[in-house]
Amino acid sequence: MNNQAQLYQRIAPDVKLGQRVKIFAFTNLYGCEIGDDVKIGTFVEIQKGARIGNRCKISSHTFICEGVVLEDEVFIGHSVTFINDRFPRSTSAAGRLQTEADWECVPTMVKRGASIGSGATILCGVTIGEGAIVGAGSVVTKDVHCRAIVAGNPARFLRHVAA
After folding, report:
1. From CA 121, how far away is CA 119, in angstroms rounded?
2. Half-sphere exposure of 157 (CA within 13 A, CB side)
3. Which of 55, 76, 90, 92 is the most exposed place for a label (fewest CB within 10 A)?
4. 127 belongs to a structural domain
């Protein structure tokens, strides 16, 4: 990576980076774990507590929040958004700004070899099964079974991945 590209990255010292990780410009990584041979595109944010397995590809403009785990060999398309809060609010009932103490981080799991198409939104608390495919633009609101293909809003089962 050249010095110019490094100027446009924010990688906090608490990030655990694996070997041979490729990180492109305008990324923001903090408090996360990144496995070996991972490719992270431009304009990606990965928050604290997120874990990325080995040989994953995370395309540009993607947001991976706290509580998300990607196992090995997961593909994330462009502009995919993960959500970790079931009831997001700016303020408490008393009207003060919420802090981390005011909400519960709900984890999300993406199993080995799954693929998530561009523009998908993944709600918290779901598991996307091994080898599953989520169609572009889908909104995943419930678990996706292993090797299932889902699409739509909300995402619905279409068929299984051909063997």
Report:
1. 7
2. 12
3. 90
4. yes
